[in-house]
Design brief:
Blueprint lengths: L3 E5 L4 H12 L3 E5 L7 H11 L4 E3 L9 H11 L3 E4 L6 H6 L1 H21 L4 E7 L22 H19 L4 E7 L1 E3 L18 H9 L6 E4 L11 E2 L1 E3 H17 L4 E7 L5 E2 H12 L5 E4 L14 H7 L7 H14 L7
Parallel strand pairs: 1-2, 1-4, 2-3, 4-5, 5-6, 6-11, 7-10, 8-13
Antiparallel strand pairs: 9-12
Helix pairs in contact: 1-2, 1-8, 3-5, 5-6, 7-9, 7-11, 9-11
The structure holds uridine-5'-diphosphate.
C-alpha cells in the first residue's frame, strides 16, 4: 500500500492500532492529535512496532484557531484520503455537556472534510459506532437497522454519518465509508499499545482489566435482570487489531470505486457475549480473580446487540478473526505490562 493517509485521533486507542496496521502495509501517515484523551508516547510506540515514522501534527481538529494550520498541513502532505477518529467518546459526559460534544465532534469532522477538499483527496473513512442503532432491532443487526441513538454522543456519530452522505451526494468525487464499530477490545499482541482511559473507565473491558491488575477493587455489573441467557447485557466484542484491518480494507475498497459513494458498514464479529461470559474469559486469560457485584442497570443500556457483519465481508473481503480468548489475552498483556497506562 503506497497510500498517503491523514489519521485524525491517530494516537488514541483505535487510532494507534489503525496507524500500526497502515504503516505495516507501507502507507505514509499524517497523524493529527491534540492528546486530549491520548498520550504522545503512543505515537513513539506505533513507530517502534511498525519500524516506520509518521508525520505528527499536534493540533485540535475542533479549534477554529488551528484550522488554517491543519488545512495547510494536510494540503502539503498530498494525501490520498483520511481516516477520521478524533472526537469525544464518553456517553455520560455527552449527556452532561451536549453542546461541547456537538461542537467538538461535528466541528472536527468538518475540518477534516474541508482539508481533504482543499487537498483534492475526497476519500474518507469515518469512525462511527453501533450506538447509532436503536434498541428495537432484531439481532444480528445489519446496516438497514433502525437508527435511534439514545444519547448525545451517539447522535454526534449519527449526524456526522448523515453529513458525510449529504456531502457525497453533492459532489460525486467523494468516496466515503462510515464504519459502525461494535465493542472494540484487546490490544496489539506486542503489549506496547492499548486502551488507556482517563480516570474511571466507562467501558467493560478496561474496567475488568483494572480490577484484574489490582487498580480497582471490584467490577460493577450493570443489571442481571435482562432477558438474556444469564441476565446480563450481551455485546459483540471485536479485537481492535481486526477493527484496524477493517479500516485498511475500507480504504482499499474506496480506492477501487470509480464513482462517488457513501456507505455504512458494520464492523463486528457477529457473535454476542454476556458481561459474565466476558468476565469469565478474562479471568482465565489473566489467571487473576475478578471480584464483581451486581448493581442496577445503567441508564440507556440495551439488553443485547450484535452485528450482522456480512456487508464488510462482501464489499471489503474482511471478517473478524480473533476470538474472545485472544481479545482477553492481548488486553491483559497490555494492562499487565503497563499497569498505569502510558504515564508509567
Ligand atoms: N458494563 C458493566 N459494568 C461496567 C461497564 C459495562 O456491567 O463497568 C456492561 C454494560 O452494561 C454492557 C456491557 O458491559 O452490557 C458493555 O458495556 P460498554 O460500556 O463496554 O459498551 P457499550 O456497549 O455500552 O457501548
Amino acid at each position: 500500500m503506497s497510500d498517503r493517509i491523514v489519521v485524525t485521533g491517530g494516537a488514541g486507542y483505535i487510532g494507534s492500532h489503525v496507524c500500526v496496521e497502515l504503516l505495516s502495509r507501507g502507507a505514509s501517515l499524517l497523524v493529527i492529535d491534540n492528546f486530549a484523551n491520548s498520550h504522545p508516547e503512543a505515537v513513539t510506540r506505533i513507530q517502534e512496532i511498525a519500524n516506520a515514522d509518521v508525520v505528527l501534527l499536534e493540533r485540535d481538529m475542533a479549534d477554529p484557531a488551528h484550522k488554517t494550520d491543519i488545512v495547510k498541513a494536510v494540503k502539503d502532505f498530498r494525501p490520498d484520503g483520511g481516516i477520521h477518529l478524533a472526537g469525544l467518546k464518553a456517553v455520560g459526559e455527552s449527556v452532561a455537556e451536549p453542546a461541547r460534544y456537538y461542537s467538538v465532534n461535528i466541528g472536527s469532522a468538518l475540518t477534516l472534510i474541508e482539508a481533504l477538499e482543499a487537498a483534492n483527496a475526497r476519500t474518507i473513512v469515518f469512525s462511527s459506532s453501533a450506538t447509532v442503532y436503536g434498541e428495537d432491532n432484531a439481532n444480528p443487526v445489519d446496516e438497514a437497522g433502525a437508527t435511534a441513538p439514545t444519547n448525545p454522543y451517539g447522535r454526534t456519530k449519527y449526524f456526522i454519518e448523515d453529513m458525510i452522505k449529504d456531502i457525497a451526494r453533492s459532489d460525486d468525487k467523494w468516496r466515503a465509508v462510515n464504519l459502525r464499530y461494535f465493542n472494540p477490545v484487546g490490544a496489539h499482541p506486542s503489549g506496547k499499545i492499548g486502551e488507556d482511559p482517563n480516570g474511571l473507565p466507562n467501558n467493560l473491558f478496561p474496567f475488568i482489566a483494572q480490577v484484574a491488575v489490582g487498580r480497582r477493587e471490584k467490577l460493577s455489573v450493570f443489571g442481571n435482570d435482562y432477558p438474556t441467557s444469564d441476565g446480563t447485557g450481551i455485546r459483540d466484542y471485536i479485537h481492535v487489531s481486526d477493527l484496524a484491518r477493517g479500516h485498511a480494507a475500507a480504504l482499499s475498497y474506496l480506492h477501487q470505486q470509480e464513482t462517488g459513494c457513501a456507505i455504512d458498514v458494520n464492523l463486528g464479529t457477529g457473535v454476542g457475549y454476556s458481561v459474565l461470559e466476558a468476565v469469565a474469559a478474562f479471568k482465565r486469560a489473566s489467571n487473576r480473580d475478578i471480584p464483581y457485584e451486581i448493581v442496577p442497570r445503567r441508564d440507556g443500556d440495551i439488553a443485547e446487540i450484535y452485528a450482522n457483519a456480512s456487508l464488510a465481508q462482501k464489499l471489503f473481503n474482511w471478517r473478524a478473526e480473533k476470538s474472545l480468548k485472544e481479545m482477553c489475552a492481548d488486553h491483559w498483556r497490555w494492562q499487565s505490562q503497563n499497569p498505569d497506562g502510558y504515564t508509567d
